[in-house]
Design goal:
The protein has 279 residues and is mostly helical.
């Protein structure tokens, strides 16, 4: 892990976003740069600059609170959920989830796509720490919203199906999980540039099969077409070889190693290394 220190110019906007007037006066609310924050977080995570990433998130929480930017504050709490989940910091991940969920009613997000995204993020946190009963309740809330607002939210709904299926697999509810994985694939078939998400889905199906049936000749035969389909997706010429590709490939190569597809596993590792060296 690098010891690089994050400097203010790495994350502060060229024009300061801090409000000149105290909250409660009639000033126009200044908004924090949500897209830039997400992009910078992805960059820092790709470089394994976890301390710098945490400092940046804490900085923008403070800025959003100072300016009364509730939407921005909500967005950063959602980013914090994923950040702490990836670092396996349960208490901080739960704290971020609680803070985001508490903001839903005040923002009038409870029945909106933004609310569904929050429910999904929080549910994924709870699944990661084996609080599956709690996660399924939130997944169901998100599912209703997304399915009623499917247009332009296909990737989010497919992601929900995948994450909800993982939770169901942990409870040995394999048939329900399989239906959700197939729902995700059907949905992604209607989307442009859905290859990475499809690859994840195919390999999640392999993982579920292993958990249900163990490793034997039957599962090996069933796994081969799923792994081949995932490979076709990962090898698509339309995919940019960027940090998200590296993130997905890093999740995929171990299962190829497990089934002794060593050449392809090494190919994915080489792609990851090349992307990281460019960053």
């Amino acid at each position: 892990m690098s010891s690089k220190v994050l400097k203010p110019e790495d994350y502060i906007e060229p024009e300061c976003v801090i409000c000149d007037k105290p909250i409660g006066t009639n000033q126009k609310i200044q908004r924090i740069p949500q897209q830039r924050i997400s992009q910078k977080l992805d960059e820092l995570m790709g470089q394994q600059e976890y301390g710098a990433a945490e400092a940046m998130l804490n900085y923008w929480i403070s800025e959003a609170q100072a300016c009364g930017d509730k939407q921005g504050e909500f967005m950063v709490y959602n980013e914090k959920m994923g950040f702490y989940r990836k670092l396996a910091k349960k208490e901080k991940a739960y704290e971020a989830a609680d803070m985001a969920i508490e903001m839903l009613e005040a923002l009038d997000y409870s029945d909106t796509v933004s609310g569904a995204t929050c429910y999904t993020n929080a549910a994924t946190v709870y699944t990661a720490f084996n609080d599956v009963g709690r996660s399924l309740e939130l997944f169901e809330k998100a599912r209703i919203i997304y399915e009623n607002n499917k247009t332009n939210n296909e990737f989010k709904l497919a992601g929900l199906y995948n994450n909800m299926a993982i939770a169901l697999v942990s409870l040995n509810r394999f048939e329900e999980a399989d239906r959700l994985y197939n729902n995700a694939l059907e949905l992604l078939d209607t989307c442009a540039n859905g290859e990475l998400e499809k690859a994840i889905t195919y390999l999640n199906m392999v993982d579920a099969m292993l958990k249900e049936k163990g490793i034997n000749e039957e599962t090996e035969n069933l796994a081969v077409p799923l792994m081949y389909n995932a490979q076709l997706c990962l090898d698509s010429d339309d995919l940019p070889r960027d940090s998200y590709y590296a993130f997905v490939a890093d999740k995929c190569y171990p299962i190829y190693e497990y089934f002794q597809w060593y050449d392809y596993a090494e190919e994915l590792k080489d792609r990851i290394k090349e992307i990281n060296e460019r960053s």
